[in-house]
Amino acid sequence: MTALPILSPRMSGIKASPASVLRRRARELRANGRDIIELSSGNLDFPTPAHVIAAAHDAALCGETRYTDVDGTPELKRAVQAALLRDHRLDYRLDEIVITNGSTQALFNALLATLAPGDEVIIPAPYWAPYLDQVRLAGGAPVVVPCAQNNGFKLRAEDLQAAISPRTRWVVLNNPVNPSGARYSREDLSEIAAVLLRHADIWVLADGLYEHITFDGLPAPTLADIEPRLKPRTMTVSGLAKSYAMMGWRIGYAAGPSALIREMITIQSQTTSGASSISQAAAVAALNNAQDVLAERAAILRARRDRFADLVNGCAGLSCTPPEGTFYLLVSCAGVIGKRAPDGSVIETDRDFSAYLLENANLVVFPGEDLGLSPYIRVSFANPSATIEEAATRLKRACEALQ
Question: What is the pTM of this model?
Answer without folding.
Answer: 0.94
